[in-house]
Amino acid sequence: MTSPSGPLPPVPRVAGRILDAQLHLMDRQVLDHDGVPVTTVDDLEVSGPALDVEIPPGTAPPVITALLTGAVLGTRIFGGRPPSSRLIRIPWKDVAEVEVVVRLGVSGEPLDASWVERWVRDKIIARIPGGRHDPR
Amino acid sequence: MKRLLGVALGVLTAIGGFVDIGDLVTNAVVGSRFGLSMVWVVAVGVVGICLFANMSGRVAAASGRATFEVIRERLGARAGLANLSASFLINLMTVTAEIGGVALALQLASSVYYLLWIPVAALAVWLVIWRVRFTIMENVAGLLGLTLIVFAVALFLLKPDWGALAGQLAPSVPEQETVWTYSYYAIALFGAAMTPYEVFFFSSGAVEEGWTVKDLLQERINVLVGFPLGGLLSVAIAACAAVVLLPAGISVTSLSQVILPVAEGAGKLGLAFVLVGIVAATFGAALETTLSSGYTLAQFFGWSWGKFRRPAEAARFHVAMIVCLLIGMAVLATGVDPVQVTEYSVVFSAIALPLTYLPVLIVANDPQYMHEHVNGRVVNVLGMVYLVIILVASLAAIPLMIVTGAGS
Question: How far apart are alpha carbons B196 and B277 in whole angstroms?
Answer without folding.
Answer: 23
